[in-house]
Every structure is written in structure tokens, then in C-alpha cells.
TrEMBL record:
Protein name: Transposase zinc-binding domain-containing protein
Annotated source species: Salipiger abyssi
Residue ranges constituting the Transposase IS801/IS1294 domain according to the UniProt record: 62-249
Gene Ontology MF term list: DNA binding; transposase activity
Segments for region (Disordered): 262-282
InterPro entries: Transposase_32
One Pfam family this sequence matches: Y2_Tnp
UniProt lineage: Bacteria, Pseudomonadati, Pseudomonadota, Alphaproteobacteria, Rhodobacterales
Length: 318
């Protein structure tokens, strides 16, 4: 969290979700490392390619991708959440190119390119002998059968969902702190457990209105099976950074982008009358490393000196 705080920029952030269709998810279950890796690669390349197109943003963007493999009922539902800054470096690297307020990239265009890149990559994995098939999928080991299996998927709609923009850098940190290290189910959803069954709450997304929370009871063995579906291969990284946030160039790129953003702003948008940054904007980028909530400065004192306040502000308020 501390490292991500250093990467945040004073710009709008967007949240894009790439989801694999069920026939591909079945293949991914038997080839986790290869197919999940391809999911990361295809989704990142999709965003980088469309954003670089002058018809859209015309810029080199940066993103953080987080893999989730579960639905609310702990079924297998592989998808990638992508947190991306609303803009990027111009092709010549001399300015920050911001996207339109509230809009990043068209999801239909993203969906089509994501579908093509992923299916091409999946076919290459099969041709290289990097996919294995078992049980009712064993016939897909044959190249012709596998190619035929992919034909209807080339015409189907692949789900790429752009959520509303985050409410600022602090909201990005709040999201990352909650979701980057989640497992298939959290403790607060567990209702009861005994030798025979486990009961937990789940959200039925098929219900469009009203209360979508329901109670599910599963035999213990089935509950354990669903939980273990989401154990990743040893050494697999479920959080990855791309574009100008790639590990090898991130620090230099972030410093350069901050300079470009500061240079491109109007004076009354970035500084007060004394030339210093508006304290409200400065505070917005400070987030609690534990919960992600916004932190406010209540007092500043020199090193080695005690604070003037005798009690924390929340005790005074009480």
C-alpha cells in the first residue's frame, strides 16, 4: 500500500473488468498458469493498443491489474480488475494527454480486440503444446477439434465492463486495500458450519432489483472443493503492472508525469496565493495504509517534541 501511494497521480482513475466466457473458463481451470497469464497479457495489451490509437486517447497509459477467479457463490469465474489512470504520456513524451472527464475508452472496441488477442494467444498456446486437457475436455487435445471449439467464441460477445470512475486517489487506495489480497470468501459472509454443512451469504446478480443477498448451504466437501478451485499455482503473481507502471520504468515515468501535469495546469488550479499546493488536494492523496480511508493532518510537530494535543481528536469529539 505504501508503494502504491507513491504511484498515485492527481488525475481521474478508471476501473475496467475483463471476464472470460464460460467455455474458456473451463479450459482455464485445467491450465491455470498458462490461461491466467494470457488473460493478464491480452487485457493489458488491449488497453495499451486502444489507448495509443490517435482516434481514442493517443497516449501511453499505465495500469495495475488484479486477478480474481471467483463469483459470489465461489464458482469458477476468472476475470481481471484493471485500475488505470485517466490519461497517459503523449507519443513524444512531452506532455500528459488526459482523457475526457468521466470517460476513458469505448468498451465495445475493447471487447472486440480483447476477444481477438485472447483467442489468438490461446491457439498459439495449444500449438506450442502448453495446454493439457482432462475428463470431458480431453478431446480438445486434437488440433482440429480445438479449432472448431473456438469458432463460436469468435462471434460471441465478450464481457468488458467499465465501472464509474473512482472518486479520487484515496478511493483507488481504498479499493486496492480491500480487493488485492482477497480470497474466494471472507469471514463476514460465513453464517454457520457443522460436521455436515457450511452456510454462507452470497449475492445473486441475476436479480436486478430488491435484495440480492441469499443464503447458500453446501456439504462440507463441496465447500472445500469450491474454495480450492481458487488456489493459484505456486509463484503465480495475481497483481501485475503494465505500461508506464511496469516495474522497470515506473519510478522514472511517475516522476516525469508529475512534472508534466504540474506544468500543464493553470496556476489557480494547482497552487494557492503563496505558490504552495492546496492543502485539501495534498490531503486527498494521503490514505490509511490499513483501511484505505482518507487521512487528515490534525497537528504537525517537530521531531523529538511532544504534540500539543493531550488527547486524540476523536476522544475530544466524544
Amino acid at each position: 500500500m505504501a508503494a502504491r501511494m507513491e504511484d498515485l497521480l492527481p488525475v481521474e482513475y478508471f476501473h475496467v473488468v475483463f471476464t472470460l466466457p464460460t467455455p474458456i473458463a473451463d479450459i482455464a481451470y485445467q491450465n491455470k498458469s498458462a490461461v491466467y497469464g494470457l488473460l493478464f497479457k491480452a487485457s493489458a495489451q488491449t488497453l495499451l493498443t486502444i489507448a495509443a490509437d490517435p482516434k481514442h486517447l493517443g497516449a501511453r497509459i499505465g495500469m495495475t491489474s488484479v486477478l480474481h477467479t471467483w463469483g459470489s457463490a465461489m464458482t469458477h469465474h476468472p476475470h481481471v480488475h484493471v485500475i488505470v489512470a485517466g490519461g497517459g504520456l503523449s507519443p513524444d513524451g512531452t506532455r500528459w494527454a488526459a482523457c475526457r472527464p468521466g470517460f476513458f475508452l469505448p468498451v465495445k472496441v475493447l471487447s472486440r480486440l480483447f476477444r481477438r488477442l485472447f483467442l489468438e494467444g490461446l491457439l498459439m498456446l495449444h500449438q506450442a503444446g502448453k495446454l493439457a486437457f482432462f475428463g470431458n475436455l480431453s478431446e480438445l487435445a486434437d488440433p482440429d477439434t480445438f479449432a472448431a471449439h473456438l469458432v463460436p467464441l469468435r462471434k460471441a460477445n465478450w464481457v468488458v465492463y467499465a465501472k464509474p470512475p473512482f472518486g479520487g486517489p484515496a478511493a483507488v487506495l481504498a479499493y486496492l486495500s480491500r480487493y488485492t489480497h482477497r480470497v474466494a470468501i471472507s469471514n463476514h459472509r460465513l453464517v454457520s458450519a457443522d460436521a455436515g454443512t457450511v452456510a454462507f451469504r452470497w449475492k445473486d446478480y441475476r436479480i436486478k432489483r430488491g435484495d440480492r443477498m441469499k443464503l447458500m448451504r453446501l456439504p462440507v466437501a463441496e465447500f472445500i472443493r469450491r474454495f480450492l478451485i481458487h488456489v493459484l499455482p505456486s509463484g503465480f503473481h495475481r497483481i501485475r503492472h503494465s505500461g508506464f507502471l511496469a516495474n522497470g520504468i515506473r519510478r522514472d515515468r511517475i516522476e516525469k508525469i508529475r512534472r508534466l501535469i504540474d506544468t500543464g495546469r493553470e496556476p489557480d488550479q494547482t497552487t494557492g496565493e503563496d505558490g504552495r499546493t492546496d492543502p485539501d488536494e495534498h490531503d486527498l492523496c494521503r490514505a490509511c495504509p490499513r483501511c484505505g480511508g482518507v487521512m487528515r493532518i490534525v497537528e504537525t510537530f517537530a521531531r523529538g517534541q511532544p504534540p500539543k494535543s493531550r488527547a486524540p481528536p476523536w476522544e475530544d469529539a466524544a
